[in-house]
Design brief:
- The protein is α/β, with parallel strands linked by helices.
- It has ten helices and 23 strands.
- Strands 6, 9, 10, 11, 12, 13, 14, 15 and 16 form a nine-stranded parallel sheet that branches. Strands 1, 2, 3, 4, 5, 21, 22 and 23 form an eight-stranded mixed sheet that branches. A four-stranded antiparallel sheet has the order 17-18-19-20, with no helix packed on it.
- Strand 2 (about 15-25) and strand 3 form a beta hairpin.
- Helix 5 (about 200-210) packs across helix 6 (about 230-240) and helix 8 (about 315-325) packs antiparallel against helix 9 (about 330-335).
- The chain starts with a strand and ends in a 7-residue tail after the last strand.
- The protein binds zinc ion.
- Zinc ion binds next to loops.
- Zinc ion binds near residues 60 and 310.
Length: about 400
Amino acid sequence: MVIALINARVLTPDEEIPRATVILEEGRIAAVGEGLPLPAGAQIMDLDGLTLAPGFIDIHVHGGGGFSLMTEDGDEIRSYARWVVGKGVTAFLPTLAAAGRPQMERWLATAASVDERLSDGASPLGVYLEGPFVNPKRKASFPPEGLRPPDVSELLAHVGAARGRLKLIALAPELAGARKLIAAARDQGLVVSIGHSDATYEEALEGISLGVTHATHCFNAMRPFHHRDPGCLGAILASPQVAAELIADGVHVHPGAMALLLRAKGHQRTILVTDGVAPAGLSPGTYSLAGRQIKVTSGRAILADGTLAGSVSTMDQMVRNLVRLGLATLQQALRMASLNPAAALGLEGGKGRIAPGFDADLVALDDGLEVAMTFVGGELAFCLPKGPAA
Ligand SMILES: [Zn+2]
C-alpha cells in the first residue's frame, strides 16, 4: 500500500520542510518534499499541525510499560515493542544488565530470537550486553553475582548464542584482560562501549586507542571528573571518536552536566537513551525487576538502598526535557533520538532520516511535543485517539 502524508512540518532532522508531502511505499520512504504529486490510489493522511520526524531509536533500554526485555519469554519483548510505539519509538536495542552467566545466556537467547520485523510494533535491533565485564566499584544497581572479570571465551559464547544479533557491549577497560576482550569484541564486529568503569584518564584513553567508540550512560556509573584526575569521564569528553549516551530524564544527570556533555560532544555525537526499566511509563509503586524490588517514586526507580535502578522516563519525554531546558533545539533533540543512535549501530544509511530509500519509521508530534502518530515500516503503529483523522 502507498501512503501519502500531507501538510506535515518535516524535520528530516537536518532540514526543515514547512509543509511537506512524504510518500511511503513498501516500508520505505519513496519521496519527500513540498507539493509532490500524489500517486494514484495512495491512502492520503493529513498531518496538518503536526511535526513529522524520524522515529526514535532507543539503543539502551531494559524495559517499559510493565514489560522487561530481560526475560525468557519472547512475547514479553513483543508486548514491549507494541507498547513503546506510543512513545514514538520505532526501533530499540534490548539491553541486558549484568547477571549470573546461566541467567544471562537465557535472556540473550530470548532477546536474539525475536524477529526484527514485527507487524505492529517497534523493531528490536539485536542485543546490548551491559555486563558482566564491568568494575565492581561502579556496579550501580547490578547484582554482585553479575560481575565477572573479562573473559574472551564467555564473550564468544554469548556471540554464538546471539547468532549474529549481539551488537554492543559495555566493559571497563581498566580490568585485567580487557585489552584482549576489546580486541575480540572488535573482531566480532561489536561496538565497544566504556561503561560501569573506574578507569583513569590514561586507562580510558588506552581503551579508546584499542577500539572503544561509545560511552554507556555518560556520567552515571563512571569515575567522576577531577581536574587533577580527569578519569574516564575526562577521556570520553576529550575524545571526539567516542559517542556518548545520555539519560536526559532530569534525574540521572544535572542539566549543567548535560550542557557540558553537549558542548564537548556536540549534537552529532550525543545519543539519548532511556535506560528504561519495566515500570517506565507506569504509575508510582513497587515493582519486581529480575527478582528484585524496585520502588518508583517522583520519576525515579530505586532499589531498597536508594541506588538508582535505571530510569522510568521515555524517549519522547527526554526530547521534551532537552527542548524545555533550553539545551537543544527541537531539531537537535530529534537528531539525538534518531540519527545519532542509528549511527552508533552503523545503521545511518537506512534509519534515522526522512529521505528517499530510508525505512518509513516516523513519529508525528503535536504542538506540546506529545506523540500523536507513529509509523513503523510504512504502517501506522500508533495513533492518539484525538489525533487527526486518517
Ligand atoms: Zn542500563
